[in-house]
Automatic annotation (TrEMBL):
Span list, region Disordered: 1-27, 120-141
Organism name: Streptomyces albiflavescens
Highest taxon listed in the record's lineage: Bacteria
Protein name as annotated: Uncharacterized protein
Compositional bias segments (type: Low complexity): 9-23
Amino acid sequence: MDFRCPGESATPAAPTTAVTSVPAAPPTDHYAENHGFMVPFPLHGERRCEGLAAVGRVQRALEPLRERGDFDPESTRSALTGLGYAVGKVRSYQDGPTGVGFLIDAFPLCVEGTMDRKSTQADAFGGYPDHPGCDRPSGGH
């Protein structure tokens, strides 16, 4: 039996990506191996349900701003801290003339996304390998 979050359909959604074939030999540039630390952890089980709920709250809080064309990072931050996230754990930034990006560090739950004229997008994840917190690590080896 698969784990489902409350309110989630019992019928799994159709995959949104096509299956691709695996190359016969591994790549020689080691890009994926060297940058794996920048790939966020997916959420599973109850933590996934918490992430989906957080994404829904964030989208509902930001939608009124988007509808009235308020793409000020401070307005976005204020709306997100109004959900109960600590001021020091919410970052927002200008993303073009009519867009805002944001990151909520409620580690081990992280929520990031964007808001622009067309939509409000958010995604929840569980942090990064070998890195505390929710900000995307930089560097490499």
